[in-house]
Amino acid sequence: MVSMSAIAEPGPTLLNGKSDSVVLPPPDTDKLRQERSTWERHKSRLMTEALGKYVVIKGEEVSELFFDSHADALSWGYNRYGHVAMLVRHITPDVSRVL
Q1: What pLDDT score was predicted for residue 1?
Q2: Are 60 and 89 contained in the same domain?
Q3: Residue closest to 55 by CA, chosen among 91, 85, 80, 84
Q4: Could you say which of 7, 64, 73, 91 would form a disulfide bridge with 54 (CB–CB 3.0 to 4.6 Å)?
Q5: Measuring CA to CA, how many Å separate 29 from each of 55, 65, 83, 93?
Q6: Which pLDDT score, from 0 to 100, does residue 22 have?
Q7: How far is residue 21's CA from residue 94's CA, in Å, rounded to a whole number?
Q8: Domain range holding 46?
Q9: Do 17 and 63 lie in a common domain?
């Protein structure tokens, strides 16, 4: 049985909705938080080295390969990391444009 003290806002999800089920933590709302932070730390260098290209960022790792298209960058990222969350960023002065 799940104790009420184990429930926090936003509440955990009970698998199958039963009180004796496994308690799942609330979903992370920003799965790319670390990647966005990595982008912020490296964007000046990337703007100098590869303006107009696409880059793949996974965790703290920034690809040293730059790509001409989003599709090429994503394909490379899937081959390197598997089908997981990663940031594919078009390196442009417009910092609000994230693909």
Answers
A1: 43
A2: yes
A3: 91
A4: 73
A5: 23, 29, 19, 26
A6: 59
A7: 47
A8: 31-99
A9: no
Coil/strand/helix, residue 12: coil
Is residue 56 within 8 A of residue 88, CB to CB? The reply is yes
Based on the fold, state whether residues 13 and 49 are members of the same structural domain: no
Q: Are 6 and 12 in contact (CB under 8 A)?
A: yes
If 0-12 CB within 10 Å is exposed, 13-18 middle and 19+ buried, where does residue 66 land? middle
C-beta of residue 35 within 8 angstroms of C-beta of residue 29? no
The verdict on 41 and 77 lying in the same domain is: yes
**Dist. CA 55–CA 43, nearest whole Å:** 10
